[in-house]
Amino acid sequence: MTMAVTAIVFYKEPADREKFEQHYLGTHIPMVEKIPGLQKVEVRRFTGKDAPYYLMTTLYFNSKEERKAGLGSPEGQATTADVPNFADPTSVTIAFADII
């Protein structure tokens, strides 16, 4: 049985929402979509004034091995290297989760 696994990236409120979203949606997500083994990407914007984060992106993989290989690939490393182009790296949290 194949168990899906995810990498979840949380972004705190950016200093400039328009600049953040322009780069994130126009440049970063197309880079993310090239990660080998990636099955699906979902981007969610939080609502409500007390939300602890601004945006959450979930990357879906078929297995931990595919996730590790994909994130470690040149494409995965390029997406990581792109983060300072649109966000303060200290405002980003990454979590890994298994779908149960």
SSE string: EHEEHHE
Q: Show unreliable segments.
A: none
Radius of gyration: 14 Å
Distance between the termini: 12 Å
Beta-strand portion reads 25-35%
Give the number of helices: 3
The mean pLDDT is 94
Walk me through the structure.
The chain has helices at 17-32, 64-72, 74-82; strands spanning 5-11, 38-45, 55-61, 92-98. The chain is α+β, with helices and mostly antiparallel strands and 100 residues long. A 4-stranded antiparallel sheet has the order 2-3-1-4. The mean pLDDT is 94.
Q: Any key phrases for this structure?
A:
100 residues; alpha+beta; four-stranded antiparallel β-sheet
Walk me through the topology.
Layout: E1 5-11, H1 17-32, E2 38-45, E3 55-61, H2 64-72, H3 74-82, E4 92-98
Antiparallel strand pairs: 1-3, 1-4, 2-3
What is this entry, summarized?
The chain is α+β, with helices and mostly antiparallel strands and 100 residues long. It has helices at residues 17-32, 64-72, 74-82; strands at 5-11, 38-45, 55-61, 92-98.
